[in-house]
Write a structure and sequence with these properties.
The complex is a heterodimer of chains A (394) and B (383). Chain A is of the alpha+beta class. Chain A has 15 helices and 13 strands. Chain B is elongated, with a radius of gyration of 26 Å. Classes of the chains: A alpha+beta (394), B alpha+beta (383).
Chain lengths: 394, 383
């Protein structure tokens, strides 16, 4: 029996949630993204008709769709409804892999006896999602291969349903533009265009050795995907890989005091989120976007994981201090990753590491302080207690 | 300058000198080996600006002089020449050193004599004799525990200090492991400053390479540690580091009193750990030990490689039932002992574990266990 993988993609999720919760927004172009210098997270289909799309600068979206309703977004509400969607999917299969807040893969192999043919099951999923969320629609694609399932869900958006039967895989793949294959980014696509490779069939016109020699491992992967080989299974409950926070300034700045202030704000947010989920990370990343949109990131790996706000801030500051700021900064962010719970060898001395790890007793104190602050905020609200250094903006 | 040397008498010294000069440096001075001919001897000198090496060997000196040559090229050339006499002659303009052996002739550019900076002389007064073998053994037993990271200050150093009654302790530490060798040497103990002597690990490899079969003399000045072969033919001096060494008695004392004790067969355990290590992964490099009075169950599990379980016959007393150590480090430590059986003194699942062996008197290595559980719990408190 061939595998059957279903991809579920919520339609314009954030905007749809806003329209769901506020009936006056229905039928109106809704754009999630605010501030003159922000970026569009998503927008309703009404807004898309004006050429607005995600990742577009808000200013451009304003120009294209001045009548649009621009909203900041309510992440907590989106998370809440995302959980409803994921739980709905788990009613159909125990093997559900959330791919992001608004999309997921579901392994439907062998479920025909329970839910009937795959088309019926996919429709049942769509109906259940709509019912359980109070009216949100999703697009569903099904295919024997993971990446094709994702492509299929995009075929008939919004509120679409597209099933790729095993015997259709080859024909569908061959006609696909090569840029739809996972792993083919802008650069590779441009390079493939030089070779006159436009669709997937063009990839298969050359042997795998050619692609390996040209792109190395990525070339082999390209050839495999073009053949419809994608051994990735649906992995239930994938652990989070990173947590980050960032902001775009109203005015570009080179003022390091301002940058440090925001690093602290981000460190606080990242640290609190990780502590809430019982996670600690070893890799701290500083992200900076300059006023010319050049983006850089600098990371440091700690010998031992941390979730302490001060520790995250200290390392991020050290990374910032090492950067010469030749241009003004447009965006600054902090991320923490490397959450794997690997055993670590204990320290004999509690000596500070040269790479910024503080002595265990200091880290412990920071964790205790964080835990106390987290408790206070959980009980009395997020602004119940604020660190002194955040009282005043520089 | 003109002299004749015998390759076999000089090649070993030349190779030691070549080992000291930095492989890559922009400073021609540091890339040079200096050759000084005087009083019927030739001195070979090399430095990396920290370590200084001088070897003096017999030569037939027709004209005395001092010259610096590109070290590695000179040593490579001499090494590849057949055994026998080699003649070194400075050309008339003083710009090249001519090396000749029979029908072979080579011309090497030289450094100006004014570049030469005198090396520290060996302060012979107060020098104490020491066995090169013994020093080599001490270094072997502790160096592997010293941190490789220079930025770790004192714990990137070999440390030696007097501890009364002619006793000396030599040790190395990297934050997770500690090795200590104790020995008696009245004269050396009297010479060592009370605060001890620290030598950075990066110099120890050169010191170990320099140590040969010939015994040595050693003396200590404010800034340097000086060593010389008893015949006086070779000298090495190393800079002392000025850091404060951690008080290792703080964790050494945890091995005293009534603590858990695990006695194992050294060779069997190393072999078992070797097999277990196959099942270690980058994310989990430890061996888990389940302990009972007569058995230690060793295990490891790797996501892609499967799992391993081995039972070892042991003698164990104590409350600790489960403990984990980094497999490779434990093997490395046990490999430095000679005893047939070893005793691991376990101060706690998260406390220092000391390893000792009956046939390795005055030698202790401490290793910290792995912290297995990483869960964090936050509870609501009344504040």
């Amino acid at each position: 029996m061939p595998p059957c993988i279903v991809h579920i993609d919520m339609d314009a999720f954030y905007a749809s949630v806003e329209q769901l919760d506020n009936p006056s927004l229905r039928g109106v172009p809704v754009i999630i993204g605010h501030g003159a210098r922000g970026v569009v997270s998503t927008c309703s289909y009404e807004a898309r008709r004006f050429g607005v799309h995600s990742a577009m600068p808000v200013a451009q979206a304003h120009a294209l769709c001045p009548q649009g309703v621009f909203l900041a977004g309510r992440r907590e509400r989106y998370v809440e409804l995302s959980a409803v969607v994921m739980n709905t999917l788990r009613e159909f299969s125990p093997t559900v892999e959330p791919a992001s807040i608004d999309e997921a893969y579901l392994d439907a192999s062998g479920l025909e006896r329970l839910f009937g043919p795959i088309a019926a099951m996919a429709q049942a999923i769509k109906d259940a999602v709509r019912r359980n969320t109070g009216g949100l629609t999703c697009s569903v694609g099904a295919a024997p291969i993971k990446f094709l399932a994702k492509i299929a869900s995009d075929m008939r958006k919004p509120d679409g349903l597209y099933i790729v039967q095993p015997h259709e895989v080859s024909a569908l793949l061959h006609s696909l533009p090569v840029g739809r294959l996972p792993g083919v980014g802008k650069h590779m696509q441009a390079d493939l265009a030089l070779l006159r490779v436009q669709c997937v069939a063009d990839v298969l016109a050359r042997p795998s050795l050619f692609w390996e020699q040209r792109y190395g491992k990525a070339g082999l992967l390209l050839y495999e995907r073009a053949q419809g080989i994608d051994p990735r299974p649906v992995l239930p409950s994938v652990a989070p890989k990173s947590e980050s926070a960032e902001c775009t300034f109203a005015e570009d700045t080179k003022d390091r005091a301002v940058l440090r202030h925001w690093l602290y704000v981000h460190a606080e947010r990242v640290g609190a989120s990780l502590r809430r989920h019982g996670l600690r990370g070893r890799v701290i990343t500083l992200k900076i976007k300059f006023d010319n949109f050049q983006q850089i990131s600098r990371s440091r790996t700690l010998p031992q994981p941390t979730a302490a706000t001060q520790s995250i801030f200290d390392i991020a500051c050290a990374l910032l201090a090492e950067l010469p700021l030749e241009r003004k900064v447009r965006l600054i962010g902090v991320g923490l990753s490397g959450f794997e719970d690997r055993p670590v060898q204990l320290s004999l001395l509690g000596c500070p590491s040269p790479k910024g790890l503080v002595p265990p007793e200091v880290e412990e104190k920071r964790q205790r302080l964080d835990a106390t602050l987290d408790t206070l905020r959980a009980r009395f609200g997020a602004s119940a207690v604020v660190r002194g250094r955040l009282f005043e903006k520089p | 300058m003109k002299l004749t040397i015998i390759k076999e008498q000089i090649i070993e010294g030349l190779q030691k000198a070549a080992g000291i000069i930095p492989a890559k440096t922009g400073a021609a001075y540091l890339r040079s080996i200096w050759i000084k001919a005087e009083n019927g001897m030739v001195s070979i000198m090399a430095t990396d600006a920290n370590i200084e090496f001088t070897g003096t060997y017999p030569a037939t000196v027709q004209e005395e002089g001092l010259v610096g040559v590109q070290g590695r090229a000179f040593v490579d050339l001499v090494r590849q020449l057949p055994a026998g006499e080699i003649t070194l002659t400075m050309d008339e303009q003083g710009s090249s050193l001519l090396l000749s052996q029979g029908r072979r002739k080579y011309k090497l550019p030289v450094n100006d004599q004014s570049w030469f900076m005198p090396f520290a002389a060996f302060p012979a007064e107060n020098a104490v004799p020491w066995s090169a073998d013994f020093l080599q053994d001490v270094l072997d037993k502790v160096t592997f525990c010293i941190s490789d990271d220079d930025a770790m200050d004192a714990i990137a150093c070999f440390y030696m200090k007097p501890c009364g009654n002619g006793r000396i302790e030599a040790c190395g530490l990297n934050g997770h492991q500690f090795a200590l060798v104790g020995f008696t040497h009245d004269d050396l103990a009297a010479m060592l400053p009370e605060e001890g002597v620290l030598i950075q690990k990066k110099y120890l490899a050169d010191l170990k390479k320099w140590l040969g079969v010939e015994d040595i003399e050693l003396t200590i000045t404010d800034k340097r540690l000086h060593l010389r072969t008893v015949s006086g033919s070779e000298m090495l001096s190393l800079p002392r580091a000025g850091h404060q060494y951690p008080d290792y008695n703080a964790f050494l004392s945890k091995l005293e009193g009534d603590i858990a004790s695990l006695t194992i067969h050294r060779k069997d355990t190393i072999e078992a750990l070797g097999r277990i290590s196959i099942f270690n992964t980058e994310s989990d490099r430890c061996t888990y030990m389940e302990l009972s009075s007569t058995e230690a169950m060793l295990s490891a599990q790797g996501q892609d490689v499967g799992s391993a379980n081995e039972s070892l016959e042991v003698r164990y007393t104590g409350e600790i039932q489960r403990i984990a150590f980094p497999t490779r480090n434990l093997m490395d430590i046990m490999g430095h002992f000679a005893s047939e059986s070893l005793t691991m003194l376990l101060s706690g699942t998260e406390g220092p574990a000391g390893i000792r062996g009956a046939a390795d008197p005055d030698y202790t290595v401490i290793i910290m266990p792995m912290k297995i559980a990483e869960n964090m719990y936050y509870s609501e408190e009344d504040v």
